[in-house]
Amino acid sequence: MIEIERKYEVEPDFVVPPLDRPGRSAADAPPVALTATYYDTPDLRLARARTTLRRRTGGADAGWHLKVPLGGEREEIQLPLGTARTVPSALSQLVLAHTRGARLLAVARLQTTRTTRTVSAADGTPLVEVADDHVRAQRLGPGAGAEVVQWREVEAELLAGAPPEALAAVVELLTEAGARPARSSSKLAQVLGDAVPAGPEVPEPRTAIGPREPAGEAVTAYLRLQVRTLMALDPSLRRGSEGAAAALAQAATRLTSVLRVFGGLLDPGSVAAVRPGLGWLDGLLSVAHIRQVACDRLREELDALPRELLLGTRPPDLAGATTDPVGRALRSRRYVALLDRLVALATAPPLTSLAETRARHVLPALVRQHWDRLDRRVSRALAAPTDRELRRCAEAAGWLQAAAQAAVPIFGEDAAALADRAAAIGAVLARHESSAAARAVLLRVARAQPQGFACGVLYAAEADRARRALDDLAEGWQQARRKRYRRWLG
């Protein structure tokens, strides 16, 4: 669920104001005692990433709670309390992008006496829950000491389905009564204090870079953006969130491309250490995504076929057409090692002396090289559209897109326009590759099952889809070759 709440610091003698108003009622619940044990790595990677993992007893939502950032709010994932006091595997996997195999241990214990007040609409629908918390907290683990800290805070949380203005009205009453916005993002952050390293593990990328600044600044920003994206998407993919597989595959492809395009600005040894693992992940995610898209489309088209074209009592079975190698890969040591190397590379990129050259003197020439490469490959593919040539085109389109995107903080709309053209070419080629994957599935299914006629109908439709993709490639490349998209390349 998405957690939308506001936290406030209050004095020990703070009095929660009356929250009932015309059309609103407020009801108190008896105080409850909550005990929460928080888990993190020894170097507090989760806290640094604004992620909290706890086991809490007491109250209606006793259990394991994982809270992860989601825009300006946080998403909460809950599991039953159970009997074990070690972190459930389902949750430790969801934070693997941050822990990367480091041990999770108890880092703090909080004992809270909570009094809640629920604000409801006139029809009794709960809108906002206000929690008045008296907290006793202690750090745990090596070197933590025995110090106990105490404070009081008030939280106002918007309940599921309630309009945002209901929370705004309660917030106004609390602030008028003297509540101040909390300086700490969570109770855990207040306990850990300065022990949490400042800033995220992978720094936020710069969004604007001057043309006179070193070219390495642009490469650093792009690397950080893609590594942060990959880390943020990892738990969503593990949970099967819609669109996560495609987005993670895109981030992996962009990382592969930027190392290919700007490898000369980075230490060769560092790039060599990352490239094989990244190529493995990129290929795995891209192939799995294309195959899944193809099979999903085939199932939809199969359902839409007239029944008489099936020539059988049941439609062809596509259930076994896809496998899930991605899930196994995300649990592998190879993936964890790759994440470690990517984080190190993005945190402190080992730049070469060329990277110290002004961006305006280096980046256009590098982008131009990859525009020329894509131009040659598209010409060859249109003349002889084999699967191999079209895959080489898709690869070059990805390189050009990454190169232009990395230049956007410096060259702005000109670089963005070229990146969009490269992305459009890549999308057309992805349609062709998806069609090829669908036809391979259909051939395999038709050989093993008696409903070959239906497979043939779908195969013909996919072949037509591939032909249309080639037509669109020719038209799209004609547009992409307009000089206005590359005038900034010199």
Kindly give the count of domains.
2
CATH superfamily of the largest domain: CHAD domain
Total helices: the number is 14
Order of helices and strands: EEEEHEEEHHEEEHEHHHHHHHHHH
Mean pLDDT: 89
CATH architecture of the largest domain: Alpha solenoid
Structural class: alpha+beta
Instruction: Tell me about the largest β-sheet.
Output: 11 strands, antiparallel
What's the N-to-C terminus distance?
Answer: 51 Å
CATH class division of the largest domain: Mainly Alpha
Strand portion: 15-25%
What global shape is seen? globular
Notes on the structure:
By secondary structure, this protein is an alpha+beta fold. The protein folds into 2 domains: 2-195, Hypothetical Protein Pfu-838710-001 (Beta Barrel); 215-489, CHAD domain, CATH 1.40.20. The protein has 14 helices and 11 strands. The chain has helices spanning 45-48, 89-94, 96-99, 164-176, 187-192, 215-238, 244-261, 268-304, 325-330, 333-347, 359-383, 387-411, 413-448, 452-480, and strands at residues 2-3, 5-9, 24-28, 32-40, 52-57, 63-70, 73-79, 105-121, 126-139, 148-158, 180-181. Strands 1, 2, 3, 4, 5, 6, 7, 8, 9, 10 and 11 form an 11-stranded antiparallel sheet that branches. The chain is globular and about 80 Å long.
How would you describe this structure in keywords?
Hypothetical Protein Pfu-838710-001, alpha+beta, about 20% strand, CHAD domain, about 500 residues, 14 helices, eleven-stranded antiparallel β-sheet, globular
